[in-house]
Design brief:
- It is a single chain.
- By secondary structure, this protein is α/β, with parallel strands linked by helices.
- The chain has three domains: 41 residues, no CATH class; 64 residues, Double Stranded RNA Binding Domain; 98 residues, Arc Repressor Mutant, subunit A (Orthogonal Bundle), CATH 1.10.10.10.
- Helices cover 30% and strands 14% of the residues.
- The strands form three sheets. Strands 5-4-3-6 form a four-stranded mixed beta sheet, with helices on both faces. It has a two-stranded antiparallel ribbon with strand order 1-2.
- A hairpin with a 2-residue loop joins β3 and β4.
- α6 crosses α7.
- It is globular.
- The N and C termini lie far apart (59 Å).
Amino acid sequence: MNPSPTCLSSPILLGDVDANTILNSGNITDPLVHWLNGGLMEKVYYCDIDTPMGKIWTATSSTGLIRLNLPCSESQFLEELGRQIDVEPEYRPGKLDDLSGWLDDYFDGKLMAYNEPFDLRGTEFQKLVWREIYKVPYGKLTSYGLIARDIGKPSASRAVGNAVGQNPLTIVIPCHRVVWNNGGIGGFGGGLDRKRFLLNIEGVLPSAEGEPEKSSSLCRFFYNR
């Protein structure tokens, strides 16, 4: 018999706090919550995936994909992942085979969205922005201002920009498809060369070299203007 039930019909007082309050706290890494939940701790797995851009690092939980970084060091990736989770991740490449196959297809130029589950961890505003970015179709663009309008916060363009910059799932939540309202290429946490590389794959830019976005306005690719 499991001595640590996850649902308590009658409160058990633990000092001045009952056990149901602790269980509902959401802090699954607390040792007491771990015991009350029957000894089940969260598992997070990560690995590296070779791509034409270089080695991409990614992580998943039992819920879904948590993080995807463009090429960087393993230590940098783990440091950034550590800001999202409170457990020690395990290196397990086989857990991310589906993502690896999807990335192969993406870099081959196949028009497809990533449809596997996400495990988004951030503020409610950040998650609202990230879900809006996910709607941007392959080969199309949006802007910070248009996202602000579409989430019902038209004066929040700057806050939207900050949320875009904190996107934990580069490529699969395609923040490279977000540009300035005037059609300028905007910024990109992974560097503009990488943004141009991705937009070139998708046919938005004719080349990844130099500054091809200056030859014409990118506004014509806005899908939601």
